[in-house]
Amino acid sequence: MIELDPDVANVLDSVFGYGEPCGSRVTCNPPPTNTDRDFLIHIPPSVAEGFSATLAGLGFDAESEVNYDAPNGIGFKSFRRGDLNLIVTTSDEFDSRHRAATHVCARLNLLDKQDRIAVFQAVLYGRKWVSK
User: Fold this and answer.
1) What average pLDDT does this structure show over 29-43?
2) pTM to 2 decimals?
3) Domain covering 6-124 in this structure, CATH number
4) Most CB atoms within 10 A, among 1, 88, 91, 111?
5) CA triple 22-4-69, angle to 5 deg
């Protein structure tokens, strides 16, 4: 199981209380060790601005406002510190779909990154993904 460092875990406990590991370290078996440690964080909209500031105070850089041109507000912000990547959303729908896509990728043990991206694009946004 992937673990958060204590500072980040304390922030999550005080704001929401939950961060779930995701990404290739969760979906691939055997898990790669040379990749980011990804966590899906679902927070209430009322704490989003303060949450971003708190993460900045812990040394996280905001990497994006919304990734993949997310439609209908089904988006997220990504925050990075070293190899730790927090995927933060206020959207119940994004949270649910992301968990479903993670489950499918893990169930199928999709080792190829382009295959995982295709699943996430289909499940999250209803899009076909063409490898770049």
Assistant:
1) 91
2) 0.83
3) 3.30.460.10
4) 88
5) 40
Tell me: the pLDDT tens digits for 73-131? 677 888 998 888 989 888 889 999 999 999 999 999 999 999 999 999 999 888 888 87
Closest Cα to residue 42, out of 102, 96, 105? Answer: 96
Q: What are the helix and strand counts (H, E) for the chain?
A: 5, 5
Q: Report pLDDT for 119.
A: 96
Encoded tokens for 66: 């919304």
Bridge partners, 88 (sequence order): 41, 77
**46 close to 52: Cβ distance less than 8 angstroms:** no
Beta carbons of 40 and 98 less than 8 angstroms apart: yes
Are 64 and 77 contacting, i.e. CB atoms less than 8 angstroms apart? yes
Candidate from 11-15, 18-22, 26-30, 89-93 with smallest mean pLDDT: 11-15
Predicted pLDDT at 99: 96
In the β-sheet with 37-42, what is the strand arrangement from edge to edge?
Answer: 20-22, 37-42, 84-89, 77-81, 61-62
Residue 38: other Cβ atoms inside 10 A: 21
